[in-house]
Write a structure and sequence with these properties.
Two copies of one chain form a homodimer.
Chain A: H1 3-13, E1 16-17, H2 18-24, H3 37-49, E2 53-55, E3 67-70, H4 72-82, H5 94-105, H6 111-135, H7 143-174
Antiparallel strand pairs in A: 1-3, 2-3
Chain A binds a DNA duplex (28 and 28 nucleotides) through residues 1, 3, 17-19, 34-39, 41-42, 45, 60-66.
DNA sequence: CGGGGCATGTAACCTGTTACATGATTAG
DNA sequence: CTAATCATGTAACAGGTTACATGCCCCG
C-alpha cells in the first residue's frame, strides 16, 4: 500500500494537479513506482477524505483543474510511514518462470526473447546513465541530492543485473 | 498473468495435488513467484475448465485429495507462452519511495529501518549461497541444471544488490 | 463555433490477500 | 472416538488495469 504515500511524497516536493502527478509517475517517480491517472484520481479523493491533502475546492468539478497540496496531517502520516518497518517483497518475475519452464520442457528457443530483453535493458541502462551524468555529477552534493542519486543508482544496478543475467542465459541456451 | 503458467510448469516437472503445489510455492518456485493455496485452487479450477490440466475426478470433493496432471493442450499453451514476448515490469519498491520521502521531508531516522533490511538481505543471501553450494556445485552440469542454477543466481544477485544499496543508504543517512 | 487537447472522472474486471469454513484421514 | 492435521473450498475486499465518458478551454 505505497501509492498513497508516493502521492504524499510527490505533493511534499511540490503541490500540483492530478494530471501533473500522473506525468511525474511517468518520469522520475515512475522509475520505482507506477500509477495511471485513474488510480491517482481515486487515491487523491481518498487522501482528501482522510484530511491528508487539500484541493482548490470546486463543486461539480469534472474537467476543471484541481490543485492539491499536502496538509500537516498528511505530512505527519508520511513521517510515520517512512520509518515504519515493512518486509521486502520477494523477487517476482515472469522471466524466471519462463526459464524454469524452458528447463522443464525445453528447448523451446527462448534465446530470441532473451536477446530482445537484453537490448531493452541495455537501452534503459544508457538512459539512466545519461540522467546520472547530467543531474548527479557533483561529488559534494547535499544529503538530499545524494539520496536522490541513490534511488537512481538502484535503477542502474537493477538494469545491470538484468543485462548480466540475460547474457548468461543466452550463453546457456545456445550451448 | 504468470500464475497459470507457473502452475503448468510445476505440473510439467511433476503431477501433484493442490496443497503440494502450494508447498512448492513456499520453496523452489516461491523464490521468484508466490501464491497462496486459495489462489492456487482458484487457478487450478480454471486450468481444468480450459482443458489444460486433468484431475482425478471426484464429485463433491471437498476434503478429498485431487491429483492434477498436465494435458497435451496445457503443454502446448506453456510452450507458446514461454517464447512469447513480454515487456519487463519495472522496479517497484516501497523502500525507494521511503528514500525519496526522506529526501523531501527528512531527516526522519530511516537508518534504523535500513539496518533491519540489511540484516534481512544478508540472511537471505546466506540461505541462497547454502543452496548453491549444496545443489549446484557440479561445474559440468546439464543444460537443465545450468538453467535452474541461473534462476537461483538471479536471487543471489538481487540480494547482493539490496545489500550494497542498504550500505550506501546507511552511509548517507548517517553523514 | 467547432475541433483538439487538457483534465477529471466512472465502470468493469482481474489478481492477489485475508479470514474463515468444511470435509477427510489418521494417530493415540 | 476425538483431536490434530491434511486437503479443499467460499467470501469479501483492496489494488491495479483497461476501456470508456464527460466537461472545460483555447486556437484557428
Amino acid at each position: 500500500m505505497s501509492l498513497p504515500h508516493a502521492l504524499l511524497t510527490s505533493l511534499a516536493e511540490r503541490p500540483c494537479s492530478g494530471l501533473e502527478l500522473a506525468g511525474r509517475f511517468d518520469r522520475s517517480i515512475g522509475f520505482f513506482w507506477q500509477a495511471t491517472h485513474q488510480q491517482i484520481y481515486r487515491e487523491l479523493a481518498r487522501l482528501e477524505e482522510a484530511g491528508w491533502v487539500r484541493s482548490t475546492a470546486v463543486e461539480a468539478s469534472r474537467g476543471r483543474k484541481r490543485n492539491y497540496e499536502l496538509l500537516p496531517a498528511g505530512r505527519k502520516e508520511l513521517k510515520r510511514w517512512v520509518v515504519a518497518g515493512d518486509d521486502p517483497k520477494p523477487l517476482r518475475d515472469e522471466l524466471m518462470v519462463r526459464l524454469r519452464a524452458e528447463a522443464a520442457i525445453g528447448p523451446l528457443g527462448l534465446q530470441k526473447e532473451m536477446r530482445r530483453r537484453l537490448a531493452l535493458h541495455e537501452e534503459k541502462l544508457a538512459t539512466y546513465q545519461a540522467i546520472e551524468a547530467k543531474d548527479f555529477a557533483d561529488p559534494d552534493a547535499s544529503r538530499e541530492d545524494r539520496l536522490r542519486h541513490l534511488v537512481l543508482r538502484a535503477g542502474l544496478m537493477q538494469e545491470a543485473m538484468w543485462i548480466e543475467l540475460a547474457r548468461e542465459a543466452i550463453a546457456i541456451l545456445e550451448s
